[in-house]
């Protein structure tokens, strides 16, 4: 197959998920990590070990604050390097993400952001609802929240990158899926925005644990509320029209489908499922998420 040489940078929980899914697709990935395990992958300690190898596809799933540096390193050593999937968000800030774009432009790289929720089948239904009822939509509620202590119970809270802003933590970055799909559904031509971002809980973290944004599209508003606080977790979308029509979807009811969405995203990225490639979050769209998050 033409896509068998895939480099995976970063081997935390999301990196391990990608590695397992790649192996499930019949691909033995190269995995750049200092913490190998028993998975049937080709583990590396340094990207220089791949010198001379034609690696076409790269997945960067390291902590958010390392995305830019890891891309620089890979772009400097790999040959035949063309397509990159970077875990969401692209980086810690719009300013740093612009540097990712410069590397992409200079090296001729095709870069995508790993917003896997786009690959849930329910979004076909949601998009059709928006298309049919756009003129009547008045309120869109997007909510995602979970107690951070329950989110990553296998890791001491203060050791999690989510707890530290400099490492790319913060609920606005961690749960930027919600902003991405809102912009994907309704576009980025809103008239104004209002943002509230703070740390209000007793969690021992230095990153924001609550984030709220209102996007004013003049005839309707999109309100997005994210937090590290609520228990049990909630994740839903509600669209309210002025003619009584409503759409409600609870994403917490889709654990198996969400797991499958990672596999569908990889298939699109690797060109196995070309018809679904349009669902991938482009570099421009990934940049726009971070731009909207700026105050």
Please give the number of β-strands: 13
Structural class: alpha/beta
Major sheet: arrangement of strands = 3-2-1-4-5-6-13
Helix content: 25-40%
Distance between the termini: 46 Å
**Largest sheet geometry:** 7 strands, mixed
Shape: globular
Low-confidence stretches: none
Tally of alpha and pi helices: 9
Percent range for β-strand residues: 15-25%
Mean pLDDT: 93
- Gyration radius, in Å: 19 Å
User: Order of helices and strands, N to C?
Assistant: EHEEEHEHEHEHHHEEEEEHEH
Notable traits:
single chain; 295 residues; alpha/beta; seven-stranded mixed beta sheet; six-stranded mixed beta sheet; 9 helices; 32% helix; globular
Descriptive account of the structure:
- The chain is α/β, with parallel strands linked by helices and 295 residues long.
- It has nine helices and 13 strands.
- The strands form two sheets. Strands 3-2-1-4-5-6-13 form a seven-stranded mixed beta sheet, sandwiched between helices. A six-stranded mixed beta sheet has the order 8-9-10-7-11-12, covered by helices on one side.
- The chain is globular and about 60 Å long.
- The model has no long low-confidence stretch (mean pLDDT 93).
List the SSEs and their pairings.
Blueprint: E1 6-9, H1 13-24, E2 30-32, E3 42-44, E4 57-60, H2 67-77, E5 83-87, H3 94-107, E6 110-114, H4 122-133, E7 137-145, H5 148-151, H6 171-174, H7 177-186, E8 192-198, E9 210-216, E10 221-227, E11 234-241, E12 246-250, H8 255-269, E13 281-282, H9 283-293
Helix pairs in contact: 2-3, 3-9
How would you summarize this macromolecular structure in one to three sentences?
The chain is of the alpha/beta class. The chain has helices at 13-24, 67-77, 94-107, 122-133, 148-151, 171-174, 177-186, 255-269, 283-293; strands spanning 6-9, 30-32, 42-44, 57-60, 83-87, 110-114, 137-145, 192-198, 210-216, 221-227, 234-241, 246-250, 281-282.
């Amino acid at each position: 197959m033409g896509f068998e040489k895939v480099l995976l940078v970063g081997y935390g929980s999301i990196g391990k998920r990608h590695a397992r899914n790649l192996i499930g697709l019949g691909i033995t990935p190269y995995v750049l990590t200092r913490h190998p395990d028993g998975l049937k992958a080709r583990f590396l300690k340094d990207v220089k070990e791949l010198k001379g190898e034609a690696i076409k596809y790269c997945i960067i799933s390291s902590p958010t604050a390392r995305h830019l540096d890891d891309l620089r390193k890979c772009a400097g050593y790999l040959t035949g390097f063309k397509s990159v999937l970077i875990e969401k968000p692209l980086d810690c800030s719009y300013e740093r993400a612009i540097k990712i774009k410069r590397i992409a432009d200079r090296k001729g790289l095709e870069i995508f952001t790993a917003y896997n929720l786009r690959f849930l089948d329910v979004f076909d239904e949601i998009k059709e609802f928006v298309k049919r009822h756009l003129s009547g939509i008045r309120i869109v509620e997007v909510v995602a929240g979970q107690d951070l202590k329950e989110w990553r119970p296998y890791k001491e809270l203060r050791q999690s990158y989510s707890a530290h802003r400099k490492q790319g933590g913060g609920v606005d970055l961690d749960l930027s899926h919600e902003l991405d799909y809102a912009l994907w559904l309704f576009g980025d031509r809103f008239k104004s925005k209002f943002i509230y971002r703070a740390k209000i809980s007793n969690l021992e973290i230095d990153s924001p644990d609550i984030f709220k944004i209102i996007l004013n599209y003049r005839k309707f508003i999109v309100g997005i509320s994210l937090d590290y606080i609520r228990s049990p977790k909630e994740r839903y979308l509600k669209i309210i029209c002025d003619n009584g029509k409503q759409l409600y979807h609870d994403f917490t009811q889709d654990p198996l489908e969400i797991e499958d969405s990672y596999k569908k995203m990889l298939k699109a990225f690797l060109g196995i499922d070309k018809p679904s490639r349009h669902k991938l979050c482009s570099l421009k769209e990934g940049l726009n998420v971070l731009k909207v998050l700026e105050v």
